[in-house]
Amino acid sequence: MLFLDGFDEIPLKRVQEIICELDEFSEKYGELQIIVSSRPESGIEASNYFDVLRLEPYGLDEQKGLITKLVEDKDSREQIFEALCVTNEDIQELLRTPLMVTLFIMTYRAKQIIPETMSEFYEQIFSVLMFRHDKTKPGFSRELETNLNEKQMQEIFEWICFLSKKEDEISFSYNRISEIAKQSLARTGHEKISPEKLINDFSKSICLLLKDGHEYSFIHKSIQEFFVSSFVKNLNEDQSIKFYTKIKLDYQRFRSELKFLKDIDTYRFFSNLEIPTIELLFETFGQDANTFCDNFIKNLYTDFKEYNTNKFKIIHLHVHTELTKPLLNDYLKQKIIDILCIVLDNIFIKEGDDVGISGFSYSMSDEKFSNSENGLRPISTYILSNKKLKKEINSHYQELSEVLIKAKSYVSLKSDIAFLDDF
User: Fold this and answer.
1) pLDDT above 90 for 385
2) pLDDT value at residue 311
3) CA-to-CA distance for 79 and 104, rounded, in angstroms?
4) pLDDT average, residue stretch 287-291
5) Residue-wise pLDDT tens digits, 167-176
């Protein structure tokens, strides 16, 4: 048996290459059992050689068991149990690993408040790890070799996260993390500080970096993702516009960060990304519900394949449109795929089958296109009821319309400067 952990941590540019290598390996050594662990939607589920099994979540009983081991004081333990039980779905979704439960214990004991969002939870982590104390007991500030304050350390850490994310890195040799630390210190005006001291502070005192032998890594991938998002939130307007423009073309690399940015950089997320993308989607397929549904169905083709992947269907989508040529980008593609995944899950021929998207291609009316030559057929031919297909797509059209209205309302409210007239 060969166990491969953390497939989702592979740089995006190497995912397809690694999948091909695993397929070849599986074919060559047919008797060998290979288990690959990963977050959902990392790409490995598209392989014909692997069954997709979804792990049971780290449930409340397991969470309580860990808390019992970590918190000796009975009153404190009961207080944390109570806090855990009243957390909302977002926080419950976050507490899926022992590490995250441990961080929850630390932040709750330090702050005595329950975070309402995942972003609030991560925002608290840095402060809690830098100044570890319990509000019910005398605390202490941890001495840092760099002698920098919390604001300065967080600014540097955000640069470390961003620079490493640019290269799709979450683990590093000492030389590499030293290079990133040096760049981050220079970017924040602390070039006289030793990178070695900074690395020691983040790995020994604040503990956001984990040292394992000669390798360093973030204690959790989501730590890097949140602080990349925090970095983007603090960009100036020109830098922000440039970032969101690039994101449209490289959505997959930053999709986790965008979930945080929607929460902590809402105005610029809506104005620079969400609003123009939904407007472009409506421009491409139609501004009213009926036109949108008709064009959406008419222009979607697929070469449906059913793989041996434990009730998991993999399809390849192809969009061909005779409408006005839009600037198609990764973020818009994802909007289309999101709609289709849910729609197809609900109305595919066989009940109870999950649907995955293995590929997405696009052509315009001025390009040569023949669905018969490409082995593609209109997606409606795979659906039992075209009426039901229209109903599902119409539902998503209405949802997108509501999102657009709310986003525009939010941006308009935040853009208002009239209240300053009589200041």
Assistant:
1) no
2) 44
3) 13
4) 90
5) 989 899 999 9
What's the rounded mean pLDDT across residues 356-373? 46
Cα gap 276→399, rounded to integer Å: 16
In the numeric block, which tokens belong to residue 339?
């709609």
Q: In what order do the strands lie in the sheet with 215-218?
A: 171-173, 215-218, 209-212
> Per mean pLDDT, which of 64-68, 94-98, 149-153 is the most reliable?
149-153
pTM score of the predicted model: 0.77
Query: What is the rounded distance in angstroms from the CA atom of residue 101 to the CA atom of residue 18?
Result: 32
| pLDDT for position 365 | 42
Handedness of CA 14, 17, 21, 27 (dihedral sign): positive
Which tops the pLDDT comparison, 198 or 213? 198
Residue 274: closest CA among 253, 247, 296: 247
> Per-residue pLDDT averaged across 251-263, rounded?
90
Looking at residue 63, its amino acid is: Q
